[in-house]
Design a protein that fits this description.
655 residues; alpha+beta; four-stranded antiparallel β-sheet
């Protein structure tokens, strides 16, 4: 038997291996399927594939393959499985007392177990990478740096998660609770942030999309490593999918170094917890005394905060509440639910229902007071969340979305939007209650989205009502009308709704559908004209004349305008007729405001030189309608009808 002062015990190591080797084998098989076998299958008929014709090489294929092989997800799973099996004895009274009765120090037990978990996790990984390297040479795809950098990422991530798993094992005397704690610790920061954001989306002015701009941070490694550490392969193609450029980068090395240090620190803390852990804590919900109040307060506060916001939102859905009333309901609900959770948590920790004492009551009162302070801080916007408007120097672009999406990248336009946003927030007290103050006034909503230069986004959503209503106050109009004046400017509509090539383009396609009613069918039929008898040049000349009329209606404020009322969905004004056209400039790429606003720039990263535009016409679009008639798209004014007229004729009851 080795010395009680030794860090490692061979007999114990062999015993641990006898219980965990099957996990290592299964892990190795999974890695084989994900890496070498998957890549071999991909390359099976590579020489006859579309990739070769498009200019891809075997090396490029391997870089792309390694880019998408899972990293943190597999490490997260393997770490807790191996660690749980290795330290299983801590959760069974008989095994726990027996293991600690042997002449083996806790130091040996801990570090031998840690070494076992590490080797069972890392050996399959390294062997897999060796096989993958051989496969790469056989396939003539020598992207060896990508293979081994991926291996390094998974190795560091695995050690980090093993350290967290061991820490979790030391905090509880129950295996299931330890596993739950493991996942809580791995996602703790994100869980807390999500709780605050959900509450903010329920209660705070402009924050209904608070969850949409959630970013990963280093405090949530499961998300952060996948997003920021890996093989980043960039393929540039032309309009026909042909390869015109390739580059790659091995990202996140500095983060891996930080995580490696963090793994060492967490492992040391876990060892210290184990060193002083009492044997009788087996089967205890929480085995570490100082974590009991932390867990109690944390669970009570975050769950009750979200629950309180949910209660207020449910009541608000049934009957629209003022901002202050909604917050008051949320605060009262959160404190009541928090107190219930406080005592329920105490019952789980102490394994008894006898937790109602003067001491516990004082603790609960103290918790309630602290929770009240935090919730009041949210109500009073102490942290300036509702009023947050970024500095213009930090903004890459500003997006505005109401009836149409617009993205402003020009410095002057960014500055203008920021000032308009600040002016809007000056009337916040009235604006956050518009749905109550002006419940009978038609309304709408709009979104302002800031894409910052550091990659983060800030999104704010606001409910508004018709600025032209006689019921709204002068202060409300002063806060909202400047926004409408800016986005309804003809130049802004042309640049951002039609597109950046609006003044230098060819109209390659145009479609208009007139409708006439057929008494025998009791339905409308389309009178669409395709102009197939014309040459492409003649068509484009015809389309261009209609397009000029469209621009005239834009200048007259009749097309693509935004309203804070319900004009965009007004069945009495909007025409049932379909009208669309395609603009093209073969030299200037088209900038899609809609794609950038909604984040589609990555999904649609290819360069395009044309865009189809759908136009919602009204009877007020006299220039466009006259041009369409003159150019033969329709001949009879009866072919023009509104949604209301269509619904009424068809017998629908919502006209």
């Amino acid at each position: 038997m080795q010395s009680k002062t030794s860090f490692f015990n061979m007999a114990l190591f062999k015993k641990n291996l006898s219980r965990t080797w099957i996990v290592g084998l299964l892990y190795f098989i999974a890695l084989l399927l994900m890496n070498p076998i998957s890549f071999v299958l991909t390359m099976a008929d590579f020489d006859n594939s579309w990739y070769v014709e498009s200019g891809y090489t075997r090396e490029i294929m391997l870089y792309q393959h390694m880019q998408y092989v899972p990293k943190s997800g597999i490490a997260l799973t393997v770490a807790i499985v191996v660690t749980g099996i290795t330290f299983w004895f801590l959760f069974n009274k008989r095994d726990n007392y027996m293991m600690h009765a042997f002449p083996v120090s806790r130091k040996s037990l801990f570090f031998t177990g840690f070494t076992t978990a590490s080797l069972v996790s890392l050996v399959p990984l390294v062997v897999n990478s060796i096989i993958m390297t051989i496969v790469a040479f056989v396939e003539k795809a020598p992207a060896i740096d990508a293979i081994w950098y991926w291996t390094l990422i998974v190795a560091v991530t695995t050690e980090l998660f093993i350290s967290i798993a061991v820490f979790s094992m030391m905090t509880s005397g129950q295996i299931i609770t330890s596993v739950v704690f493991y996942f809580i610790f791995c996602y703790l920061y994100t869980l807390m942030e999500v709780a605050f954001r959900i509450t903010a989306s329920f209660l705070m002015f402009g924050m209904s999309s608070a969850l949409s701009d959630l970013d990963s941070t280093m405090l949530t490694p499961a998300f952060f490593i996948s997003a920021n550490c890996g093989v980043n392969a960039v393929v540039d193609t032309d309009d026909y999918g042909k390869l015109i450029g390739f580059s790659y980068e091995l990202t996140g090395a500095k983060y891996l170094a930080i995580y490696a240090v963090a793994a060492v620190v967490i492992t040391f803390i876990a060892y210290m917890l184990y060193k002083y852990k009492k044997l009788e804590t087996v089967h205890d919900f929480i085995a570490v005394p100082f974590l009991k109040p932390v867990f109690t307060v944390g669970m009570s506060f975050f769950i009750s905060m979200v629950a309180g916001g949910f209660v207020a939102e449910m009541i608000n859905a049934a009957k629209t509440l003022t901002y202050s009333t909604k917050f008051a309901i949320a605060i009262v609900s959160a404190i009541i639910i928090g107190c219930i959770l406080f005592y329920a948590t105490q019952m789980m920790i102490e394994k008894t229902v006898r937790v109602f004492s003067a001491k516990k009551f004082l603790y609960c009162a103290g918790y309630s007071a602290a929770a009240l302070v935090v919730l009041l801080c949210l109500r009073l916007d102490v942290f300036k969340i509702e009023n947050k408007v970024p500095n213009a120097n930090d903004v890459e672009w500003v997006g505005f979305n109401c009836d149409y999406a617009m993205v402003f990248t020009d410095e002057d336009e960014i500055g203008t939007m920021i000032e308009l946003h600040k002016n809007f927030l000056e009337d916040k007290k009235e604006l956050r209650d518009v749905n109550v103050l002006y419940s009978d006034v038609p309304g709408n909503s709009f979104t302002i989205k800031y894409k910052l230069k550091n990659g983060k986004t800030i999104v704010r959503d606001y409910s508004v009502v018709d600025t032209e209503s006689e019921e709204v106050s002068a202060q409300y109009v002063a806060a909202t009308e400047p926004i409408l004046d800016f986005v309804n400017s003809p130049i802004q509509i042309k640049e951002h709704v039609i597109g950046n090539i609006y003044d230098d383009c060819t109209i390659t396609e145009m479609s208009f559908s007139g409708y006439l009613y057929d008494e025998s069918l009791e339905d409308y039929y389309s009178t669409y004209v395709d102009f197939d008898y014309l040459t492409d040049r003649e068509k484009q000349e015809k389309f261009a004349r209609v397009y000029e009329a469209v621009l005239k209606d834009v200048d007259a404020g009749k097309l693509f305008t935004t309203s804070f009322g319900t004009d965009y969905y007004n069945n009495e004004d909007q025409l049932y007729n379909d009208f669309s056209f395609t603009i093209q400039n073969k030299k200037t790429p088209y900038f899609s405001d809609t794609d950038f606003f909604w984040g589609y720039e990555y999904a649609n990263s290819y360069v395009r030189y044309e865009q189809s535009i759908y136009v919602q016409l009204t009877r007020d679009c006299t220039n466009t309608l006259q041009a369409l008639k003159e150019e033969g798209f329709y001949t009879d004014d009866e072919e023009i009808l509104t949604y209301g007229e269509y619904n009424q004729r068809m017998g629908y009851d919502y006209y």
